[in-house]
Automatic annotation (TrEMBL):
MF-aspect GO terms: lipid binding; proton-transporting ATP synthase activity, rotational mechanism
Originating organism: Alkalibaculum bacchi
Record-given protein name: ATP synthase subunit c
Protein's cellular compartments: Cell membrane; Membrane
GO CC terms in record: plasma membrane; proton-transporting ATP synthase complex; proton-transporting two-sector ATPase complex, proton-transporting domain
Major localisation: membrane
Membrane topology, as annotated: Multi-pass membrane protein
Record-annotated V-ATPase proteolipid subunit C-like domain positions: 14-76
Protein function: Key component of the F(0) channel; it plays a direct role in translocation across the membrane. A homomeric c-ring of between 10-14 subunits forms the central stalk rotor element with the F(1) delta and epsilon subunits. F(1)F(0) ATP synthase produces ATP from ADP in the presence of a proton or sodium gradient. F-type ATPases consist of two structural domains, F(1) containing the extramembraneous catalytic core and F(0) containing the membrane proton channel, linked together by a central stalk and a peripheral stalk. During catalysis, ATP synthesis in the catalytic domain of F(1) is coupled via a rotary mechanism of the central stalk subunits to proton translocation.
Site (Reversibly protonated during proton transport): 63
Pfam family, one: ATP-synt_C
Signal peptide: none
Keywords associated with the record: ATP synthesis, Cell membrane, CF(0), Hydrogen ion transport, Ion transport, Lipid-binding, Membrane, Transmembrane, Transmembrane helix, Transport
UniProt lineage: Bacteria, Bacillati, Bacillota, Clostridia, Eubacteriales
Length: 83
């Protein structure tokens, strides 16, 4: 017989897997931003410092989504508050 704890563990593992899908968005966004940044530097080499700074700030903000998803997945797997 399946107990409530086993169902919670199974749903937590499923939720952790779904949370890690959120890592795809930042990866795609950062690749797009890096490509556009390289394109902008190619068009205006004099503004390379400002373009790079802005691009890195945007990538850092985008990366937080993936980090939050990782933290949620780790909490669901190792420190499950529902058990």
């Amino acid at each position: 017989m399946i107990t409530g704890i086993e169902i919670i563990k199974a749903c937590s593992a499923l939720g952790a897997g779904l949370a890690m899908i959120a890592g795809l968005g930042p990866g795609i966004g950062q690749g797009f931003a890096a490509g556009k940044g390289a394109e902008a530097v190619g068009r205006q080499p004099d503004a390379a410092g400002e373009i790079t700074r802005t691009m890195l700030l945007g990538q850092a903000v985008a990366e937080t989504t993936g980090i939050y998803a990782l933290v949620i997945a780790l909490i669901l797997i190792f420190a499950n508050p529902f058990i």
